[in-house]
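fyi for ur records
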Amino acid sequence: MNEKGDSSTSLSFITTTYVMVDDLSSYSIISWSQSGKSFIIWNPEEFSSNLLQRFFKTNSLDLFFFNLEIHCFRKIDSRKWDFANDNFVRDQPHLINNIISFMIEERDQLDRKMDMIKAERLFTMQVKEVEDQLQPNRCYPNEQHSFLTKAYEMVDDPSSDKIVSWSQSGKSFIIWNP
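which gave:
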């Protein structure tokens, strides 16, 4: 879904919810709280069967609560159905645009994170492909031991003293005129 589609759907949900809460004829079912900074669903059964059907063409409370959650509403009071969002305030409908802007910004940040994850995975796959193409360094213990044995024998051989010999300490060797 494109950005315009997402934001227009969100705007529709927020605007419709605002109109529904602001509707004086439904104050016994849903209304603004006394402070006007949240709204309360007074009668969930009536809300579900009548208002949701009328305003949203559904009677699913779960869907309505899911939409509240994705639009950053929070439950204020655990004893009643009181929901708030700092940009959903009585007599300030212009603030609802901030909800949409915030959601677009959040989605853009998520998209950027997903792009980073995809780039990291691609990089990891490319590194693995290169590693798979490289010939492994086959230095097996027996071959390494054989090489060291031959090197030790060569340094120990008095006939090769003009090429290679032990140092005075006997802990290292010297290659003469490399």
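Residues 1-5 have pLDDT under 50 and may be disordered. thats all i got for now
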